[in-house]
């Protein structure tokens, strides 16, 4: 998204309380959002991305597999979730 940096700033300025992201990593915005008290919930398509988002400070994640339309990865949701 070419204007992602501007959108991320508007999220802060408008006092958004919860952000759910998809289509990439929000890691570069995470510190600013967390400093503003925003709950961040990224959509992830792999265990590696889930771990990266955990390290970046995500409050929760949404595991989404290829059943969502095939555009997000090659793994099914069930392979992303452990019991």
List keywords for this structure.
Rossmann fold; alpha/beta; three-stranded parallel β-sheet; globular
Report on the architecture of this protein.
Helices cover 40% and strands 14% of the residues. It has helices spanning 4-13, 27-35, 47-56, 77-80, and strands at residues 18-21, 39-44, 62-63. The chain has a three-stranded parallel β-sheet, with helices on one face. It is globular.
Please state roughly what percent of the residues sit in beta strands, choosing from under 5%, 5-15%, 15-25%, 25-35%, 35-45% or over 45%. 5-15%
Name of the CATH architecture:
3-Layer(aba) Sandwich
- General form: globular
Structural class: alpha/beta
What is the structure about, briefly put?
It contains 4 helices and 3 strands, in the order αβαβαβα.
List the helices and strands and how they pair.
Blueprint (H helix, E strand, L loop, with lengths): L3 H10 L4 E4 L5 H9 L3 E6 L2 H10 L5 E2 L13 H4 L3
